[in-house]
């Protein structure tokens, strides 16, 4: 039985409790090691330490697995805290499929490093947590002054459509902003209630009120065609996990 089929079979066998296990890289290839969920609650999981040790002895643990029998198709607040603690990808069995989540850095208070943790990385990672994969385009520092256009050259092929100028932003919309010129060289995500999530140059990623300077410098607002099918809960959970772990 294929790896993902084994995980889904395990999830179905223990529902309505959450299943849990580990994906291990062994000499024979990747294997799924099901584990006992020793949590006393049905809507959470805790891997039996004996099962974790067994998996470690078999090879390198490359992913933590668990299920959400009734959804949502996103990592919970506790899941994101747990993922940060393990430093591993987490796989989620939900709706008869496996969703794989990279161990992305917390969306808040990231250090700025152009091309690695910058405003586009923040958008890409937030959308990854929400179930939408955006291309990681190579970009040189100061690309906006070198004739390149990271955002407008690529945003439509990534599945976004421009929102009409009179339409208010909605949860998850990408807001493109001009900084000191007319080119859209900065991107942010609208969080609702008049707030943006963004990563300013050489500062920590943060929430900001979408007013004053940011509104005046707004170039355009973009909405992903599939956004109604994905879940903003994933972004909210990551932000809450940062508050929880402080």
From TrEMBL:
The keyword Metal-binding applies. Residues 71-225 form the NlpC/P60 domain. It holds the Pfam family NLPC_P60. Keywords: Hydrolase, Metal-binding, Metalloprotease, Protease, Thiol protease, Zinc. The keyword Translocase does not apply. It comes from the Bacteria. Belongs to the peptidase C40 family. This is C40 family peptidase. It comes from Oceanisphaera sediminis.
């Amino acid at each position: 039985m294929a790896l993902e089929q084994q995980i889904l079979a395990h999830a179905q066998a223990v529902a309505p409790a959450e299943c849990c296990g580990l994906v291990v890289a062994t000499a024979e290839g990747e294997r799924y090691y099901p584990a006992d969920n020793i949590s006393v609650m049905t809507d959470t999981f805790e891997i039996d330490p004996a099962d974790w040790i067994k998996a470690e002895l078999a090879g390198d643990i490359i992913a933590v697995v668990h299920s959400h029998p009734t959804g949502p198709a996103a990592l919970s607040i506790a899941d994101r805290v747990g993922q940060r603690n393990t430093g591993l990808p987490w796989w989620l069995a939900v709706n008869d499929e496996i969703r794989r989540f990279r161990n992305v850095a917390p969306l808040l208070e990231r250090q700025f490093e152009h091309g690695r943790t910058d405003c586009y990385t923040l958008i890409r990672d937030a959308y990854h947590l929400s179930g939408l994969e955006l291309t990681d385009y190579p970009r040189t520092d100061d690309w906006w002054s070198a004739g390149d256009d990271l955002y407008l050259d690529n945003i439509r092929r990534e599945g976004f459509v421009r929102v009409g100028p009179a339409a208010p932003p909605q949860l998850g919309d990408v807001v493109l902003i001009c900084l000191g010129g007319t080119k859209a060289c900065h991107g942010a995500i609208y969080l609702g209630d008049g707030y943006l999530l963004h990563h300013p140059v050489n500062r920590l990623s943060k929430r900001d009120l979408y007013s004053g300077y940011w509104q005046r410098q707004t170039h355009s607002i973009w909405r992903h065609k599939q956004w109604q099918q994905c879940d903003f809960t994933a972004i909210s959970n990551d932000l809450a996990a940062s508050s929880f772990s402080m």
